[in-house]
């Protein structure tokens, strides 16, 4: 069985108090901290980059699960590695040509490579990356169009998760977008084990209860 990884999306946190927000999530049981890096080009929103990861790294030992919603992921590998990112997940939509080199570089920069796919991208596109000589170690199935927190979960993406889980029983499969108490059971039943949750965690009166509930659903 693959172990559950609950990853609050720090996009929904108070960026002015990022170190304290990170500690709060870890203390409440988060396994990973999901960091959404957007370049205002691959997606119509602009967030943070390596300098913020570097600053945060000085305050936490937590696994920083970095999701790069950028057009040129290769340009950020070295700086993200130096900044202390733990995972580096790029989008297949912008890495059709050079994913092998990209994965190699991510590994040699000391990070765990992952590949993400947008709702409109067929799941078959990631098979070569999971089966390659230098494989990715996680597939992130987007369950909303990337760019913003607080959107509605797309249940029809669960077919992709199910297909991946059947093919790859031990692969880390992450879902991102609209996950919370009302959608977790569908994602867990399909076979997702890494759960990103932004607004449902940070918007809850008791975020720790939501983190616990998400974990228990994956463990069921
Ligand atoms: C969306 C980001 C998500 C987002 C999730 O592009 O990749 O990580 O923060 O937020 P919620 O959980 O609010 O949908
Ligand atoms: Zn994300």
From TrEMBL:
Transmembrane segments: none annotated. InterPro entries: Aldolase_TIM, Ribul_P_3_epim, Ribul_P_3_epim-like, RibuloseP-bd_barrel. Its cofactor is Co(2+); Fe(2+); Mn(2+); Zn(2+). Pfam families: Ribul_P_3_epim. It comes from the Eukaryota. Its EC number is 5.1.3.1. Keywords: Carbohydrate metabolism, Isomerase, Metal-binding. This is Ribulose-phosphate 3-epimerase. It comes from Camelina sativa.
């Amino acid at each position: 069985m693959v172990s559950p990884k609950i990853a609050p999306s720090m996009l929904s946190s108070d960026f002015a108090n990022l170190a304290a927000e990170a500690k709060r999530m870890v203390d409440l049981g988060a396994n990973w901290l999901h960091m959404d890096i957007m370049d205002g080009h691959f997606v119509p929103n602009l967030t943070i980059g390596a300098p913020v990861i570097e600053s945060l790294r000085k305050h936490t030992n937590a696994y920083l699960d970095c999701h790069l919603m950028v057009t040129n992921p290769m340009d950020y590998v070295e700086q993200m590695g130096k900044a202390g990112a733990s995972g580096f997940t790029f989008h297949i939509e912008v890495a059709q040509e050079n994913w092998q080199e990209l994965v190699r570089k991510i590994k040699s920069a000391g990070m765990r490579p992952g590949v993400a796919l947008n709702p409109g991208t067929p799941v078959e596109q990631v098979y070569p990356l999971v089966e390659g000589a230098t494989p990715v170690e996680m597939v992130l199935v987007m369950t909303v169009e990337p760019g913003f927190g607080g959107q509605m979960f797309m249940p029809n993406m669960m077919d992709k998760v199910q297909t991946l889980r059947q093919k790859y029983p031990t692969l880390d499969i992450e879902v991102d977008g609209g996950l919370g108490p009302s959608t977790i059971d569908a994602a867990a039943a399909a076979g997702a084990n890494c759960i990103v949750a932004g607004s449902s965690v940070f918007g809850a009166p008791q975020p720790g209860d939501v983190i616990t509930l998400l974990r228990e659903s994956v463990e069921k």
